[in-house]
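Hi all, posting the design record for the shared folder.

TITLE: backbone redesign
STEP: 1 of 1
STRUCTURE INPUT:
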């Protein structure tokens, strides 16, 4: 049996062998340790890559923009073990329009106050759109510090989020777990997540834009349908204003139009508010000045005017100042009809280009529907006028001729009647026929007039006669001769007031049983009010008669009070020229 030990006397060789063996064993252990570390790194890298892939799938899964933005921040914090995270959405210029944060509760957020606007390091990424990795945020030259009650933050990682060639915003991460700084691997992972986030945000924005467009199209269709169906225009215009307020995400909205559509556009000085929705806005009936205001610019140039937050007095009194405003012209190729104005609360984001485009198209379609509805209404009125002309011809050519024939027959019979009672009845019948013929002629005048004011004035005079007489149990009779359609608004107001006051005096003071009103329209308007009472009492106050005389003077006419030609009572005659 041979020994494995070296030969006797070779002591130096034995020592060298032990050292070599020890060194060899140490090298193996180091190699194994290094291999183990590399394996752990590979496993960690694989886990992080798996987490990144899962995060990218999670971020790109949804189409709701707000939820997608929140998911991006939460996922980024989880991937790099950051305590705090935020996504700043770029607005106009280099300011932040939105700031979605993670890690700060509602109570702390309330104590901090206003959200960041993009100054300091947060805004640096807009000017230098590349990743920023800092061990101590406060030591960076661009740092502007933290507001009171803000939690301390040291380590920082900022990465821009791009949508194609546009900087949508920045992803901010602070306070890595264990107080460690963010690593280069963290930066690479967050950059990859930001790239996926850009795609997800783009998809969500496209989806949101499609949904908004569909909502505007549906609103336009509803408005056009209501207009063309003959719905009350005021009701439809109210819906127009409410749709505009809702779809532009505004606090309030108003509709203003010229108070007289017949005045040329270049002669208008203001528009009248006719519809409104929401609070803190000009009341209906208030005028909006055109000169030097955004309302005037939009109306006269027929172009939308968009105002940012804090627009001062650009809208003009009495509109509120403060939040973003959008003034939309309601116009057709032929004419300007008015403006549609939406107002957001102070501090709200401005109107984006897509909202302005969709709202302007909605206003254009609403204006076109308004014009088409007005055209249809005019056509219906023409149809009514045509029917009135036909009825008037039939009344004149057939009904009146037959009544004349009946009247002539009655008059010829009257000559052969010897019984006094029969003669009296025939005479009364002939008088009634003449009265009916006169009323039909008046109706023919009204039908040919074709103006709703005619019917309105007839009703006003009838009410002025019968309201007091019916209340007192007195018989009231109305006879109208001539076309009421030629009487203007001012003279019509005088006529109603004169009839009402004269009839009221007769009812109160004359003791009459019958009051008759004759209205004659020729070169002048003549009102004759007669009663069968005992005349004007001596103790009656003359104020009522003075008012009638004053109205005659104001209208350039005459006024006279006298007893009737036969019998008892009072005869009031009031006249005024038509022009």
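Okay, here is what came back for every position:
SEQUENCE:
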């Amino acid at each position: 049996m041979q020994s494995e030990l070296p030969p006797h006397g070779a002591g130096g060789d034995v020592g060298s062998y032990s050292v070599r063996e020890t060194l060899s064993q140490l090298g193996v252990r180091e190699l194994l340790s290094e291999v183990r570390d590399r394996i752990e790194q590979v496993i960690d890298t694989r886990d992080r890559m798996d987490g990144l892939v899962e995060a990218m799938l999670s971020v790109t899964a949804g189409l709701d923009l707000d939820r997608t933005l929140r998911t991006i921040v939460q996922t980024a914090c989880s991937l790099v073990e950051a305590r705090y995270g935020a996504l700043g959405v770029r607005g106009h210029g280099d300011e932040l329009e939105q700031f979605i944060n993670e890690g700060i509760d509602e109570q702390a957020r309330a104590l901090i106050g206003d959200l960041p606007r993009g100054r300091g390091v947060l805004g640096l990424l807009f000017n230098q759109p590349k990743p920023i990795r800092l061990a101590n945020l406060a030591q960076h030259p661009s740092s502007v510090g933290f507001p009171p009650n803000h939690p301390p933050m040291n380590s920082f990682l900022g990465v821009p989020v791009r949508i194609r060639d546009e900087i949508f915003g920045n992803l901010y991460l602070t306070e890595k777990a264990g107080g460690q700084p963010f690593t280069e691997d963290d930066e690479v992972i967050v950059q990859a997540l930001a790239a996926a986030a850009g795609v997800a945000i783009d998809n969500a924005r496209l989806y949101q834009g499609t949904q908004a467009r569909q909502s505007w199209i549906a609103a336009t269709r509803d408005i056009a349908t209501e207009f063309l169906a003959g719905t009350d225009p005021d009701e439809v215009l109210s819906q127009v204003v409410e749709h505009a307020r809702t779809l532009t995400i505004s606090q309030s909205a108003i509709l203003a139009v010229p108070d007289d559509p017949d005045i040329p556009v270049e002669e208008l000085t203001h528009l009248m508010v006719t519809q409104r929705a929401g609070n803190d806005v000009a009341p209906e009936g208030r005028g909006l000045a055109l000169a030097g205001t955004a309302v005037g610019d939009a109306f006269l140039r027929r172009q939308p005017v968009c105002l940012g937050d804090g627009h001062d007095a650009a809208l003009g009194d009495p509109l509120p100042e403060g939040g973003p405003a959008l003034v939309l012209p309601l116009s057709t190729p032929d004419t300007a009809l008015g403006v549609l104005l939406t107002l957001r609360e102070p501090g709200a984001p401005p109107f984006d280009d897509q909202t302005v485009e969709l709202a302007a198209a909605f206003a254009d379609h609403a204006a076109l529907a308004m014009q088409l509805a007005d055209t249809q209404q005019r056509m219906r009125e023409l149809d009514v006028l045509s029917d009135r002309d036909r009825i008037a011809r039939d009344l004149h050519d057939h009904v009146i001729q037959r009544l004349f024939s009946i009247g002539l027959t009655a008059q010829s019979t009257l000559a052969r009647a010897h019984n006094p009672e029969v003669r009296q009845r025939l005479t009364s019948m002939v008088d009634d026929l003449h009265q009916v013929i006169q009323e039909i002629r008046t109706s023919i005048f009204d039908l040919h007039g074709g103006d709703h004011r005619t019917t309105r004035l007839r009703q006003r005079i009838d009410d002025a006669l019968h309201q007091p007489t019916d209340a007192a149990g007195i018989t009231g009779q109305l006879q109208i001769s001539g076309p009421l359609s030629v009487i203007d608004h001012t003279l019509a107001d005088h006529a109603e007031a004169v009839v009402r006051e004269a009839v009221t005096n007769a009812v109160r003071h004359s003791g009459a049983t019958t009051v008759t009103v004759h209205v004659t329209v020729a070169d002048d308007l003549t009102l004759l009010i007669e009663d069968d009472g005992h005349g004007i009492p001596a103790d009656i106050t003359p104020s009522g008669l003075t008012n009638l005389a004053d109205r005659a003077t104001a209208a350039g006419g005459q006024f006279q009070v006298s007893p009737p030609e036969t019998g008892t009572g009072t005869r009031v005659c009031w006249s005024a020229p038509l022009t």
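COMMENT: The longest helix spans residues 353-415.
Let me know if anyone wants the other runs.
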